[in-house]
C-alpha cells in the first residue's frame, strides 16, 4: 500500500484503496483520529481518481472530434 500522501500507481489501485477505506470507515470500529486520517486519504484518492477520469474523457473527446482535417497532437495532462 502506498504512503498516505503518495499517489497510487494506477486508477484501479486508487479505486481499490478507496473501497478498502470506505469499508473500514463504515465498520465504525476505528478510533476518531484514525477515522479522520482515513477520511482524509479517501478524499485525496477520490480527487486523484476524478482528475484521471477527466483526463481520460478529454482524450476520448479529442479522438472523437468531428473535424477530421485537424492535426493530431499528443495529449499532455494539465496537472501531473
UniProtKB/TrEMBL annotation:
It is found in: Cytoplasm. Belongs to the XseB family. Bidirectionally degrades single-stranded DNA into large acid-insoluble oligonucleotides, which are then degraded further into small acid-soluble oligonucleotides. Its EC number is 3.1.11.6. This is Exodeoxyribonuclease 7 small subunit. It catalyses: Exonucleolytic cleavage in either 5'- to 3'- or 3'- to 5'-direction to yield nucleoside 5'-phosphates. Heterooligomer composed of large and small subunits. The keyword Cell wall biogenesis/degradation does not apply. Pfam families: Exonuc_VII_S. Its main location: cytoplasm. HAMAP family: Exonuc_7_S (MF_00337). One of its GO terms (molecular function) is exodeoxyribonuclease VII activity. Keywords: Cytoplasm, Exonuclease, Hydrolase, Nuclease.
